[in-house]
Amino acid sequence: MIRVLLVDDQPLIRSGFRALLDLEGDIEVVAEAGDGKEGLALAEHHRPVVALIDIQMPVMDGIETTRRIAADPSLAGVHVVILTNYGMDAYVLDALRAGAAGFLVKDIVPEDFLHAVRVAARGDALLAPSITRELIHRYVTQPLITDTVAGLKELTNREREAVALVAQGLSNDEIADRMVISFLTAKTHVNRAMAKLHARDRAQLVVIAYESGLVTPRSR
């Protein structure tokens, strides 16, 4: 059973998402909160698998809520998905650095929303296509930070290739097809790269790839 926590200051938004989730036999909404402080307390109490958290809320915003969840070892199994009205806004990178597993725009269609919850529950990163495009655009149109993170030199050539494909928004299945390897081998390359680069998840792997210069406009 996928245990879900809803955190949004708009009751109508919460009720809409809950109505969709309650129809699914493998998903259970364990709690709802109207601000980040309450959401954090409920996360500690219920230990959900997925926490859907609005990025802009009173009392405690989604970024700080995500940061506190990520910093608590007892909540390591909670996958935070940020909800936003605007796609790629000024807070996206901050939330990814704080530990968010991904983002969803609130106008997402119901089928994609339900799929996204299941993807997040598996531990995969989740970036709405519009956000992925804007994230990439931001980094390929501005000067890159050239300092490399410590783990970059430890990556094998195949791991580097896998990271570059993750940064383009490809899933493990698509990476396997592109690299002509099995799904399990693709997953292994990605997981080893994440470990070496100390990335919490694939979303942060994308940020590291662009910030470090591992992925550049030329490599795309």
Automatic annotation (TrEMBL):
Entry-linked InterPro entries: CheY-like_superfamily, NreC/VraR/RcsB-like_REC, Sig_transdc_resp-reg_C-effctor, Sig_transdc_resp-reg_receiver, Tscrpt_reg_LuxR_C, WalR-like
Domain Response regulatory positions: 3-121
Residue numbers carrying 4-aspartylphosphate: 54
Pfam family, one: Response_reg
Record flagged with keyword Membrane: no
The HTH luxR-type domain, residue ranges: 148-213
Alphabetized CDD domains for the sequence: LuxR_C_like, REC_NarL-like
Keywords: DNA-binding, Phosphoprotein, Transcription, Transcription regulation
Protein name: Response regulator
